[in-house]
């Protein structure tokens, strides 16, 4: 399964996943740069840097699969994509359960931040 037999397999799978996320981040930087050109940015980088990192990350993700295809890379990809099962309903579609929110109030005290707004629990 996903538990590697040696440290080198663990390093390969971790590097694959890490560079996949680095490439995704650089792709998002490029998309946001051209879709929202005037948005305030906390820091700015020249365009060639995200493009260069995106090319390098694409090479470091595709290279090990082409050179030595292993089932662990497929497992890592499926594991990463399985996060969409929780992202889509709870973040993208903002699905909320009332009982879960009340349980969170019990866990976090008398106030809770939901969707960026500070919500107070009404006693009574």
Automatic annotation (TrEMBL):
Keywords: Membrane, Transmembrane, Transmembrane helix. GO terms for molecular function: L-amino acid transmembrane transporter activity. It comes from Plakobranchus ocellatus. This is Amino acid transporter-like protein 4. It comes from the Eukaryota. The chain crosses the membrane at residues 16-36, 48-67, 73-93.
């Amino acid at each position: 399964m996903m538990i590697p037999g040696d440290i080198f397999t663990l390093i390969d799978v971790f590097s694959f996943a890490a560079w996949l996320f680095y490439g995704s981040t650089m792709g998002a930087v490029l998309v946001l740069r051209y879709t929202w050109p005037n948005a305030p940015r906390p820091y700015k980088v020249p365009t060639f840097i995200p493009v260069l990192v995106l090319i390098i990350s694409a090479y470091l993700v595709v290279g090990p699969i082409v050179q030595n295809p292993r089932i662990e890379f497929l497992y890592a990809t499926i594991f990463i994509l399985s996060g969409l099962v929780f992202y889509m309903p709870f973040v993208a579609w903002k699905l909320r359960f009332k009982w879960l929110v009340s349980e969170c109030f019990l866990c976090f005290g008398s106030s809770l931040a939901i969707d960026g707004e500070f919500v107070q629990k009404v006693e009574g």
